[in-house]
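Subject: complex prediction, re-run

Hi both,

The earlier run crashed halfway through, so I resubmitted it with identical inputs.
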Amino acid sequence: MTTFVIRRLMQAVMVLFATSLIVFVAVYAIGDPLEILLPSDASEAERAQVARSLGLDLPLPVQYGRFLWAALHGDFGNSFVYNRPAMEVIFERLPATLELTITALLMSLLIGLPMGLWAGNRPGTMVDESVMTGSILGFSLPHFWQGMMLIMIFAVWLGWLPSTGRGEPGTIFGITTSFASWDGIRHLILPAINLSLGNMAVIIRLTRTGVQETLPLDFVKFARARGLSERRILLVHVMKIILIPIVTVIGIEFGTLVAFAVVTETIFAWPGVGKLIIDSINALDRPVVVAYILVMVTLFIAINLAVDVAYSLLDPRIRSRAA
Amino acid sequence: MTLLEVSELKTWFETPAGTVKAVDGVSFSLAKGEIIGLVGESGSGKSITGFSILGLVDPPGKVVGGTIRFNGEDLRAASEARLRALRGDRIAMIFQDPMMTLNPVLSIGTQMVETVLAHRRMSRADARAKARDALGRVGIPRPEERLDAYPHEFSGGMRQRVAIATALLHEPDLIIADEPTTALDVTIQSQILSEVQGLAAEMGMGLIWISHDLGVVAGLADRIAVMYAGRIVEEGPRDDVLDTPRHPYTSGLVASAPIANERGKPLRQIRGSAPSALHRPEGCAFRPRCDHAGDLCVNDVPETCAAPRRWRCFYPLGSS
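This time it finished cleanly. Structure:
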């Protein structure tokens, strides 16, 4: 297990290096930030001076080399727009996004798993049919449309929940979070629902299929013949089998959630990194874009590693192969 | 004393193509400590008979008629909770494929302990001790360690022993063994056979041994019941059935056992194949494959009883 983790960490370093190179070149190709940073009537001398101060006058390999060297020392450059370290800008916004995605993920699990088990256990019944139809709507209706409908219904017509912003987050143990204040939670509900619906639909369908494929297996019949309760069979025997594909999907979906958070954050004016990256791309704020993508890649690597570890915890057959 | 009495059991499957009468009027009884061999081809309804007794027929299958009495109790009238209390405690079942009967992601210990705790109030440690003893009893070395192992760490024969140990945890009165040796090597097969036989005798358990292999049953059962197309076509004490079969189908089965064949001669076989459960012939279902069929065979065949034997045939063998 330890060698496995070490090998994965070394791979992770390679992946980060490769990503940084690709992103750096790609961002370089998008356009010249000077066009946006300077007023259109700026003189040639001013342009040259700003370019020199930002290091934009150097050839690409030299720029990349300087970036890499600084990055290895923990410095990802200053944002052109905010004139502060790029990482600082990102980490200021990241908690809001993680809060949103984790809430959405938990919601889709806590609702999706029981619904999937319920439907899978009663194939062909009304319950099954309605859950399945509902889940189709869940992932086929466009994300932004769902978000707008949520605002229409719960914020505009019913007036129950606020439609935009993060409200006044409270503070627990020195961490500022929406969970700590009622206002924060109220602001979190709609965007979290919006973000979770698609994912919830996937988890429902996956769980239902898993249950329906597992229930006819011999070991379930043997478990019944041993006199176990249906509850134990479903929640222990079947659940442990279907958790393996579900964990895989959660790993992939977490990434999708962070990505889709861009849409949700835009609709609900949620001050997270999703909005930041859109703004930064528009402003050609290179250091922020590069730093953001590196943070996301690190997050993905960490999730994948966690998924692989979870596999071996869930499935003894994988465990003994790895040993 | 009668342990199990099945009479006129009917288990049908309603399918879009029609009603499949998998079990169509099966009757037999079993005394305490007795072993009955239920023999037949695939699709003859022998496994479904076993599942019907446990109340574990999968939909769309349903027990639609007959009675099942276990220790005097009517199982068809029993509640699901009562059946669950009996399953694994008083009536146990062993399955055909040991690769499939244990949950691959739960340890042997977990699966055995949960079986103990489903029926008895006791501490986890006591349940574990009980599981360990059960493993030891079926000849698994170092049972304490093996409790923490997972099914894939056992060979097929060992897995079947684990399944048997699990089935025997509560020393049931009745075991339904659904071809438990079919998937195993011949040497392991005979080991398991003799072990089950020994344990059944030791605990005084009744045993229904379901098999398509007459040879396996011949060495084990007190009585043999031969099933064909959802019915028992012949039943009686083992030696009588094997030595002087009355039903042409039984006779065909006995003759087609390779061991009965003279060396060098082509193996004997029953011509044709078992009818589809959807389109069974009128009257005797074996008629199209039978060399002795006569005019009467298109009618429904009544049972002929000549204690301790019975058969369903208009032209039984051994009568002139």
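The mean pLDDT of chain A is 82.

- K.
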